[in-house]
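@channel anyone free to eyeball this complex?
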Amino acid sequence: GQSLEQPSEVTAVEGAIVQINCTYQTSGFYGLSWYQQHDGGAPTFLSYNGLDGLEETGRFSSFLSRSDSYGYLLLQELQMKDSASYFCAATHYGGATNKLIFGTGTLLAVQP
Amino acid sequence: DVKVTQSSRYLVKRTGEKVFLECVQDMDHENMFWYRQDPGLGLRLIYFSYDVKMKEKGDIPEGYSVSREKKERFSLILESASTNQTSMYLCASSLSRGSYEQYFGPGTRLTVT
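replying in thread with the prediction:
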């Protein structure tokens, strides 16, 4: 089957660095994306890794290793507003178009 | 900015009713998707459409159908609502076939009693 695994919850303090890991098992894998979802809000796109290595976007970085079927999202200088759920999603070629297969999400709680 | 809107934020329906969830995107995107989100299960794809009148089943299509008569509008239909279809329903769109970024609507929380 196709699946992505990530921790269900992570807790960190303001100003710290946190890493959210994601391992995947999918066929037709193109790349790994990360989405952020605040409570009651819509998921919003954070980053995409189509190639192995690190992608940096401000305080957020994302990493992919295809050989290990593994990726992570790194959040630096944590702020209270970063408290949200984070989903990894594998881009999968579904025939007519690319589809996303989502992990079950990691709830990040940032404490003062 | 891409905007994806959904017809209702909250909806309460009775078992056996036919339910229509509407989604509209304003950026001429080719692809549109319907997901349901349940605690601990993440987002699961119900159906998607890659062109007007073209649709494909996702991972959990049972009990649902879809309609895309115009490019900007994608409807999810619950033919006969059941209590196990109580969920958050999210619509999304993406630009074209090779796109990896999806834009999501605010969601419709459907309760079936």
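from a first look: Chain B has a mean pLDDT of 95.
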